[in-house]
Design brief:
Number of strands: 0
Protein name: TetR family transcriptional regulator
Helix content: over 70%
Pfam family, one: TetR_N
Largest sheet: none
CATH topology of the largest domain: Tetracycline Repressor, domain 2
InterPro entries: DesT_TetR_C (IPR054129), Homeodomain-like_sf (IPR009057), HTH_TetR (IPR001647), HTH_transcr_repressor_FabR (IPR050692)
GO molecular function, one term: DNA binding
Keywords: DNA-binding, Transcription, Transcription regulation
Distance between the termini: 60 Å
Length: 218
């Protein structure tokens, strides 16, 4: 890559980072202007058009970039999808929350904009969540604990529940109060880890007793 191409890539990334910063600081993406993004990135407004046609295109690319990082995180949860070993479930939940902390702005963006004011961003996020669900369903199909789930539709429904629960867990984790009181925060985090682990185990227990054929007949 030439120096010119490298600088172009850096300025493009600066615009994406600026949009992410602004939209996770109490602002909705739909209220952010092109000029604000350029100013936050340290660029003149005309430089924006060297990389994106408009804010919608930037928003789509931002959703793609954020989703790639979260895709790996959500797939890592499969390590806890053991219906027999509760310790594995807790370990997976602990790793999940650690990763949420490391990519907190990405989670805040997707959670905040999933029902936000921009229809373009909402549609892009819905598309990515659909991909998350499809990929997770494929992963679950390969696990012994899910081999009795005989229909694709059932796997899709289970994956949808897991993905939506993951978003709820992440939102609750990031919104824990008393962040200035480390002792209280640790207690709240431990309680949330325990509750989340139990939620996952209860759901897996239900899955272990699920009968696709009986479900179709009910």
């Amino acid at each position: 890559m030439s120096i010119r191409d490298e600088r172009k890539q850096q300025s493009r990334q600066a615009l994406l980072d600026a949009a992410l910063t602004l939209s996770t600081s109490g602002r909705s993406f739909s209220t952010i202007s092109l000029r604000e993004v350029a100013r936050e990135a340290g660029l003149v407004p005309t430089a924006f058009y060297r990389h994106f046609q408009d804010m919608d295109e930037l928003g789509n690319d931002l959703v793609d970039q954020v989703s790639i990082s979260l895709h790996h995180l959500l797939r890592s949860l499969r390590e806890g999808y053991s219906l027999k070993a509760g310790s594995k479930t807790r370990l997976s939940i602990e790793r999940f929350f650690t990763a949420v902390d490391h990519s907190s702005r990405h989670w805040l963006f997707l959670i905040g904009e999933r029902w936000g004011g921009s229809s373009v961003i909402r549609d892009a996020i819905a598309r990515e969540i659909h991909f998350f669900i499809d990929d997770l369903a494929e992963d679950l199909k390969k696990l012994p604990a899910f081999e009795h789930v005989s229909t694709t539709q059932d796997l899709q429904i289970m994956s949808s529940i897991l993905i939506n629960m993951s978003f709820s867990w992440a939102m609750t984790w990031l919104n824990l109060p008393d962040k200035n009181n480390s002792a209280t925060l640790e207690q709240q985090r431990e309680q949330l880890i325990q509750n989340t682990t139990k939620q996952a185990q209860l759901m897996f227990r239900g899955i272990s007793n699920w009968n696709s054929e009986a479900g179709d007949q009910s």
